[in-house]
Design goal:
alpha/beta; Rossmann fold; 2 domains; five-stranded parallel sheet; 49% helix; elongated
């Protein structure tokens, strides 16, 4: 597991939840300290967070997650355009912060449900719908979950449509990602669209 560093200043420090999620990691003052490769967590409470993000992306061999005390789509898009691999609520529970870290460490993207829904909607409009069968390595239920999620449904919506629990959706989705070699929902939608050609 890669190390985690929260970028601090005189006004901004890691929250108790972040410290609980990554109790073996620490705070750094950037650019005064140069971290080893890992995951850097940057709060939008830094007045110059966008220029800090740009500097980090250009100089540090790390993946960056931007945290916001009041997430919104505009700020999230700015973070992603700036090179962040994740965008999440600064006061998320430790378990969710660890999920964000896991997705980012494995090359995925974490942007939260609302922004993901917007991106999925744009993807659905831009790409054709796949009508061809999915690989035989997927079970029938995994294929149903894959199609529903690629159509833009959240885990909760998928669970309701298929009459299963959200936990079961997550388990099937993990298997789908692994079997199809994709890292996140957006890649799944693109892969399924590509299989239509």
């Amino acid at each position: 597991m890669s190390p985690h560093y929260f970028i601090t200043s005189t006004q901004v420090h890691a929250s108790a939840r972040w410290l609980e999620a990554f109790n073996d990691s620490g705070e750094i003052s950037f650019p005064n300290s140069t971290p080893s490769p890992g995951v850097l967590w940057l709060s939008t409470q830094h007045l110059n967070w966008q220029s800090m993000l740009q500097h980090i992306i250009q100089t540090a061999p790390s993946r960056v997650v931007v945290l916001s005390p009041a997430p919104n789509d505009t700020e999230g898009l700015l973070a992603l355009e700036g090179g962040a691999r994740g965008y999440a609520h600064q006061h998320a529970v430790p378990a969710l912060l660890r999920e964000v870290a896991l997705a980012v460490q494995y090359g995925g993207l974490w942007i939260g449900p609302d922004l993901m829904q917007r991106m999925m909607a744009v993807t659905r409009k831009a790409l054709p719908t796949a009508n061809t069968p999915l690989p035989a390595t997927l079970s029938a239920r995994e294929a149903q979950v894959a199609r529903t999620v690629a159509d833009g449904a959240s885990n909760r919506e998928t669970a309701e449509r298929l009459g299963i629990s959200e936990r079961t959706v997550k388990a099937h989705l993990s298997a789908v990602f692994e079997k199809l070699g994709v890292r996140d929902r957006l890649q799944l939608a693109i892969k399924m669209s590509a299989s239509a050609h």
